[in-house]
Amino acid sequence: MASLYNQVPSVSAVFSLYASFSAIMMLFRTVINEIVPKGIRDYITVRFVDFFSSYFQFESSFTFVIEQKWGSVDNQTFRAAEAYLPTCLAGLSTEKLVVGCNLKNPSDQISSNSNRGSSGSAPTWNPAGQLKLGVPVDTKIIDEFEGIHLEWTLHSTVMETYPYEKRYFHLTCKKKFREKIMTDCFTHFVKSAQKRMSHRENLNIYTYNQQHSYWEPAIFEHHATFETLAIEPKLKTTMIDDLDAFSKGKDFFKSVGRAWKRGYLLYGPPGTGKSSMVAAIANYMNYHIYDLQLQSVSNDGQLRKILTTTQNRSIILIEDIDCGSDASSIRKTKGKEQVSSTSEGISLSGLLNFVDGLWSCCAEERIIIFTTNHKEKLDPALLRPGRMDIHILMDYCTTFVFKKLVAMYLKIDDHALIDPIEELVLEVSVTPAEVTQQLMVSKNADVALKGLLELLETKKMRKEDDAKVEDEGEIEEAET
Ligand SMILES: Nc1ncnc2c1ncn2[C@@H]1O[C@H](COP(=O)(O)OP(=O)(O)OP(=O)(O)O)[C@@H](O)[C@H]1O
């Protein structure tokens, strides 16, 4: 320690060294000034400064800010980053990670391929199997793109007004890679995110929260599929073929200059499976559902805003369109289709704009479904060819539908009561909902089918009585 102390130069030695160095530098400067012309000196100075400033500038960092909202709508790049980043988290050495799980049986997971044909089962608690990683706030996530070092950070700022939180990503790289990141890296991570997003593990059903102006999600766990839906085989094949063609149709829709969307009008009496069909479509396509209550939309402007904040690959569902708003009757009452919006509700033209007008192009791969119990009440403008691509009648039970329900609910395909019930099904109108209600009364096929037979016999008697009353009415009318 003492010898080390002895080696430190004294203050006077340092001072005399500095004085000699200054004298040499002054001499050197004078010589340079004398022998190098001013023009050359200036040129060298400029090049020297340029080199170092550009070096430091190039080496300095550059940050892309990716905000959650782009104007008033969701920023798709932010959503892509949200979907992409969890793929980088598993091997990350970090002090923080967001982990979570949900109430879902892995065998239940819905993907466009795996779910086709699955019947679903009750959700079970399986945290270990479902553990997921999320992006923590204010934590650097190190990423790499073609050897370029990248840093992602999710920030969150509390705001005084709704939505009370502003979230945004910072993506930082060296300034010299700015162009490359913009052109190649963004494309790369958006593509990876698209793949991830197309394999949604959870489906959501959204309802619009008027008070705070946003779509409020809830996990959608309806187990209806095309296998559990009792419909005629022809309808099932038509639907599946149509959906398959639609999901693969991006290039086709582009080539014919149409928006990549499909419209279905489901109509028929209550309890014939319209909502179940919507659920089957959502599960088959792996699409979220946006359940829009037309009554709660105050005008066309709001309708536009609501619909532009929905995601791609989703279903926009408007149930009971005949009684939802003025939309079905406005044309009749005002005498023409192109009416402007009023403070009382939306106009038919506002709605049609989303079905097949310019606003229908504001999202991709979207299915619009209207349901109604009274197709005859709808405005002809809604029914015109090309508006809703397919009109699907969900009707009373046929013998095929009845037998399919019996096979599903009672696990039998043969029973002494099946033939008499089939005959009655042909004579009276009974909905699949009424049949399933009876079939669920007991697991014992004798009990369940007997109850169903009695229900149908009662319906038949009532139908005969009604016919009698009608005949008598007609005779009375003819006599008067
Ligand atoms: N075709 C069907 N296949 C299987 N189950 C069905 C079918 N139709 C109805 N059901 C059963 O009846 C119940 C009610 O059906 P659903 O709500 O889908 O009918 P809906 O036509 O949408 O009725 P509403 O017009 O009253 O909304 C469902 O939960 C389902 O169990």
Describe the structure.
This protein is of the alpha/beta class. The chain folds into four domains: 22-55; 65-102 and 129-200, no CATH class; 216-323 and 345-393, P-loop containing nucleotide triphosphate hydrolases (Rossmann fold), CATH 3.40.50.300; 399-470. Helix content is 46%, strand content 17%. It has 19 helices and 15 strands. It has helices at 2-7, 11-35, 38-59, 76-84, 86-89, 127-130, 178-198, 233-247, 250-255, 274-285, 300-308, 321-324, 330-334, 348-356, 380-383, 399-410, 418-427, 432-439, 445-479, and strands spanning 61-67, 69-70, 73-74, 98-100, 132-134, 140-145, 148-158, 165-174, 204-209, 214-219, 261-267, 288-291, 314-318, 366-372, 390-393. Strands 10-9-12-13-14-11-15 form a seven-stranded mixed β-sheet. β6 (140-145) and β7 form a beta hairpin. α4 packs across α7, α16 runs parallel beside α18 (432-439) and α17 packs parallel to α19. It is elongated and about 135 Å long. Mean pLDDT is 80; it is low at 104-124 and 326-343. Adenosine-5'-triphosphate (ATP) binds next to α10 and α18.
